[in-house]
Structures are given as structure tokens and as C-alpha cells.
Predict the 3D structure of the following.
Amino acid sequence: MKKMLKATINYIIVALLIILAIIISIYMFLGQTIEESIQLINQVAIKIENTSEQGEIKLNAEKNRLENYPEYGTEYATIEIPKIDVSLPVYYGDTLEILKKGVGHSSGSYFPGEGGSIIYMGHNSKKMFRRFSELQIGNEIKVTTDYGEFTYKIYDMQLINENDTEKLPVQDEKEILMVYTCYPFNNIGYTTQRYVVYAELVQ
């Protein structure tokens, strides 16, 4: 009886070791794919949840206001600057985490189509706004949202200090897009200067 029990236990241990080896092998070969699939499922779930909570984003033309606003931290638009080959996602908010992913939208400013000041910001990295020095007056900036496309034309560019808030005025008399990045453009790390591009709505 003892021999049978001992043999059974040995079989169980061997079976568990084989199962463990199979699991490890699967994870080694398919781990990345599994993780990517889980992340994709989570992203889809989050988007569905946000959509159900916030509803469809629409622009009320009569009131010049959005009927629903994007959740803080979510992507709601794309900014394109053909002159410097820029096409980047725009996120509502301006935290460091948001700026790692794309262009941030200051939560204290208006949205495209609302007729006021819109303030965007992004890093001066190669993939983002490193080539801002090549921009010229008359160049176009296009912002595409779920509720419409908006084209702005650059009319001014200024180098300001980070505390010059009067150079980034929030007003509702005219739709102006202000996009800024850190200066110097090739600087790595913290800097106190900002290069601002000012553009007015033309279409």
C-alpha cells in the first residue's frame, strides 16, 4: 500500500513538473503576444466605458460649445503641421504622462470650434516639435476631431519665458490656436523658455 501511495505521489509530482514546463514554454514563446492581446482588450474596454459615460462629442454651432467633452487624459484629436511633417495625437490634459504620449491640451483653454483660445503643448523631441524653427508665417496647422476639421494659419511666433502667462491669453473673442514647446529646441532636460506659434482659424 505504501509503495502504491509513493508511486502515485511520484506520478503526480512528475505530472505537475511537466505542466509547469509546458506553461513556462508557452509563456516564453507567446508571452509577448498574450500581453499585447490583454492590453488591447483593456484599451477597447476603456474606450467603450468612456464612450458610454461621456457620450458622443458634438459641437453645438448655435452656442459655440461642445455638448459633451472628452474625459481628461483621453485622445480626442490629431494635429498636423505639413511644413515640418508633424502628425500627432492630441490628448485633453497637460500632465507629464500625457506629454509622453503626444500633444497636450491645456484644460483651462477652449476646444476647436468654440471660438476662443486653444492652448496645445508638446516636447521638443525629434518625433514632436524639434523642427519648430522651420515654421513661417502663413503655414497651416490642421486639427481633426470626431466632430469636425479645423484649419489654422500661423500669423506670429514668439520666444517667451515660462511665466509669461499674458503671452498665452485665454479669451473668447476670436479662435486662436497657440502651440508651444521648450526652447532651445535641442535642449535636453528642463528649460525656462518656450517657443510659441500663434495661428488663427481660417476654415
Observations:
- Residues 2-54 form the longest helix (53 residues).
- The chain has two domains: 1-54, 60-201.
- The CA atoms of residues 100 and 138 lie 29 Å apart.
- The longest strand covers residues 148-161.
